[in-house]
C-alpha cells in the first residue's frame, strides 16, 4: 500500500481527452497523456482493501467482475506511487501481453469491481495502466521476446486479440509460430474493427513490429478454408489454433433491409479505417455519411463508433436506436450490487460529440425498427419505428410489447446495423467437421481449448462468442498454455 490515507486525501481525476470540438475534425486518438505526478497520486488512492476484487475476473450473473487477465493491480498502483515505473511495468507485463490495447479499449471491469468504488469513486486503474505501458515504450523497456527453439511448428488462424495473444506466448516459449490473416493488415478487430480515434493504428503496428522481431511470421491476404485448405494446416503443423473471431454479423429481419444504404456496422467501420490508412480517405473507397441522415440500430460500443465516425464524415444528423430500456444513472444496489459490473448509463465519446454538435444525446431507448423505406432508385429514405415496453410473458421471460400509437417515421439516407454478432463463420468448421455449441461457436471447453479434432484448438470469440478484448487476450494466453502442454507435456506459461 503506497499511502495509508491516499484514498481519503486525493480525489479521482479522470483521463484527459481532447475536446469534442477539436477531435471531430480529425482521426487522431482521443486520449491525452497525464502528468506523471497526477498519475502517482491516483496510484496512491488504491486502499489496500485486503481482497482485491479488481483483479478477480469472476463471472457474476453472466458478466465479468474484475480483470479477466488477473492483473496485479494493487501491486503496480503502489509501485507507481513510489515512482518505480519500470518495476510497475514488469508487474503489468507478467499478466497482460498488450496493455496498450486494453488501456485504450477495455470498459474496465476492474474499476467496476474496485472496493473504493463501492463507497467513493473507483481508482483510475485503466488510466494508470495506460501511463505505465506508454512510459515503458518511451523508455525502451518493451522488447521482443525470444526463447530457445523447440522445433515445434504452430499455425494460428486469425490475428485479432486472441490470435496475437496466443502467438506471443507460444513464441515466448520457443515454438515456431505462423499467423494467417485474411486481411491486408494484421490485427483483426484491433486493426479494422475499432476506429482510429479509440486505438490509433500506429499503436497496433508498433506491437506487430515487436512480434515480428521476436520471430513470429504473419501471412496476410490468405483466408484459411479458401486460399489454403484448413486440413492442410492440420497436416503440416504440430498444432493449429483457431482465433477467427465471431464475425457473422446479426441482421435485421424487416422490410427494406436489402435497400441501398443499409450496411452492417462492421463493413462501415472496416472500409473507413482501410481507406484512412491507404489514402487518408482520398480514394473514396468507404461508405460515406457526409451530409446524410444516419440511423444506427444498436446502442453498444459499435454503435458509438459508428456515430463518431459519421460525425467525422460530416453527417447531417445521427440517431442510435436501442430496444432495451435506458440504464439508470447510478448502480441499483438491490438488483445490481457491487462487485457486479455496474449497469448504469454512460456517455461515451460518440454521444459526447453528438451532444456538443447537435445539442442532444443521439440514443433513443425502447424503440424498435419496423421497416425501412426507399425511393424508386432503391435508396433508403426512411426508417419506421415503434416504441416498446418490456413485459413478463406467461413463461416468465421479459419480452418487448409494442406501444399503440407510438409509431414514428425517421428520415434516413444511411442505416447502420450494429446489433452484434451471431458467431464464427462456417467455412473452417464445415471443412474440419468441428463440433459447435448451441450458439454456433466452435466447441472447446474453457481451460482445455482443444476441439473434437486432435491438435486443433480454439480461443477467443470463435470459442466463447462476441466478448471483450481483454477476454480474447486471456483466452489466447490460456489456449497457448494448453497447446504448449500438448506439445511438450508441461508448460511454463502462467
Q: How does this model look, in words?
A:
The protein has 494 residues and is α/β, with parallel strands linked by helices. The protein folds into 3 domains: 6-139, Orthogonal Bundle (Fumarate Reductase Iron-sulfur Protein, Chain B, domain 2), CATH 1.10.1060.10; 153-247 and 422-488, FAD/NAD(P)-binding domain (3-Layer(bba) Sandwich); 251-419, FAD/NAD(P)-binding domain (3-Layer(bba) Sandwich), CATH 3.50.50.60. Helices cover 35% and strands 17% of the residues. It has 19 helices and 20 strands. It has helices at residues 6-9, 20-23, 36-44, 73-81, 85-95, 99-105, 109-112, 115-119, 125-139, 161-172, 189-193, 201-213, 230-236, 265-279, 301-313, 349-358, 427-432, 461-464, 469-488, and strands at 16-17, 31-32, 58-60, 63-65, 153-157, 176-180, 217-219, 239-242, 248-249, 262-264, 293-297, 317-322, 363-365, 367-374, 380-392, 398-402, 408-411, 414-417, 421-423, 456-458. The strands form 6 sheets. It has a 5-stranded parallel beta sheet with strand order 7-6-5-8-20, sandwiched between helices. It has a 5-stranded parallel beta sheet with strand order 10-18-11-12-13. Strands 14, 15, 16 and 17 form a 4-stranded antiparallel beta sheet that branches. Helix 3 crosses helix 4, helix 3 (36-44) packs across helix 9 and helix 4 packs antiparallel against helix 5 (85-95). The longest helix is centred in the C-terminal third of the chain and has 20 residues, at 469-488. The radius of gyration is 23 Å and the shape is globular. The model has no long low-confidence stretch (mean pLDDT 96).
Amino acid at each position: 500500500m503506497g499511502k495509508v490515507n491516499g484514498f481519503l486525501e486525493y480525489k479521482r481525476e479522470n483521463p484527459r481527452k481532447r475536446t469534442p470540438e477539436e477531435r471531430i475534425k480529425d482521426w487522431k486518438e482521443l486520449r491525452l497523456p497525464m502528468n506523471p505526478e497526477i498519475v502517482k497520486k491516483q496510484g496512491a488512492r488504491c486502499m489496500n482493501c485486503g481482497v482485491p476484487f479488481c483483479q478477480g475476473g469472476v463471472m457474476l450473473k453472466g458478466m465479468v467482475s474484475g480483470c479477466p487477465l488477473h492483473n496485479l493491480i494493487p501491486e503496480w498502483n503502489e509501485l507507481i506511487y513510489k515512482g518505480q515505473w519500470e518495476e510497475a511495468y514488469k508487474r503489468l507485463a507478467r499478466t497482460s501481453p498488450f496493455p496498450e490495447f486494453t488501456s485504450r479499449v477495455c470498459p474496465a471491469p476492474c474499476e467496476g469491481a474496485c472496493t473504493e468504488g463501492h463507497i467513493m469513486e473507483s481508482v483510475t486503474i485503466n488510466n494508470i495502466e495506460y501511463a505505465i505501458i506508454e512510459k515503458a515504450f518511451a523508455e525502451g523497456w518493451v522488447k521482443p521476446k525470444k526463447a530457445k527453439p523447440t522445433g515445434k511448428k504452430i499455425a494460428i488462424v486469425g490475428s485479432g486479440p486472441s490470435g496475437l495473444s496466443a502467438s506471443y506466448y507460444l513464441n515466448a516459449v520457443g515454438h515456431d509460430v505462423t499467423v494467417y490473416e485474411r486481411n491486408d493488415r494484421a490485427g483483426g478487430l484491433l486493426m479494422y474493427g475499432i476506429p482510429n480515434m479509440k486505438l490509433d493504428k500506429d499503436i497496433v503496428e508498433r506491437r506487430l513490429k515487436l512480434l515480428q522481431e521476436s520471430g513470429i511470421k504473419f501471412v496476410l491476404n490468405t483466408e484459411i478454408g479458401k486460399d489454403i485448405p484448413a486440413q492442410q494446416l492440420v497436416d503440416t503443423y504440430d498444432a493449429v489454433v483457431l482465433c477467427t473471431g465471431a464475425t457473422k454479423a446479426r441482421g435485421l429481419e424487416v422490410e427494406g433491409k436489402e435497400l441501398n444504404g443499409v450496411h452492417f456496422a462492421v463493413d462501415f467501420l472496416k472500409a473507413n479505417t482501410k481507406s484512412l490508412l491507404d489514402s487518408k480517405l482520398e480514394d473514396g473507397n468507404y461508405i460515406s455519411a457526409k451530409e446524410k441522415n444516419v440511423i444506427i440500430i444498436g446502442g453498444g460500443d459499435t454503435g458509438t463508433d459508428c456515430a463518431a465516425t459519421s460525425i467525422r464524415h460530416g453527417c447531417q444528423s445521427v440517431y442510435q436506436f436501442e430496444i432495451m430500456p435506458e440504464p439508470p444513472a447510478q448502480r441499483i444496489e438491490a438488483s445490481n450490487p457491487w462487485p457486479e459490473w455496474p449497469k448504469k448509463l454512460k456517455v461515451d465519446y460518440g454521444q459526447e460529440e453528438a451532444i456538443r454538435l447537435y445539442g442532444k444525446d443521439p440514443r433513443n431507448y425502447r424503440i424498435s425498427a419496423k421497416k425501412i423505406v426507399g425511393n424508386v432508385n432503391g435508396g433508403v429514405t426512411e426508417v419506421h419505428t415503434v416504441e416498446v415496453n418490456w413485459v413478463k410473458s406467461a413463461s416468465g421471460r421479459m419480452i418487448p410489447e409494442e406501444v399503440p400509437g407510438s409509431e414514428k417515421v425517421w428520415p434516413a439516407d444511411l442505416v447502420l446495423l450494429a446489433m452484434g454478432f451471431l458467431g464464427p463463420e462456417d467455412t473452417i468448421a464445415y471443412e474440419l467437421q468441428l463440433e459447435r455449441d448451441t450458439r454456433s461457436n466452435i466447441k472447446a471447453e474453457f481451460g482445455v481449448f482443444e476441439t473434437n479434432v486432435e491438435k486443433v484448438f480454439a480461443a477467443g470469440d470463435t470459442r466463447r462468442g462476441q466478448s471483450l478484448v481483454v477476454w480474447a487476450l486471456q483466452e489466447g494466453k490460456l489456449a497457448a498454455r494448453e497447446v504448449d502442454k500438448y506439445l511438450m507435456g508441461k508448460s511454463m506459461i502462467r
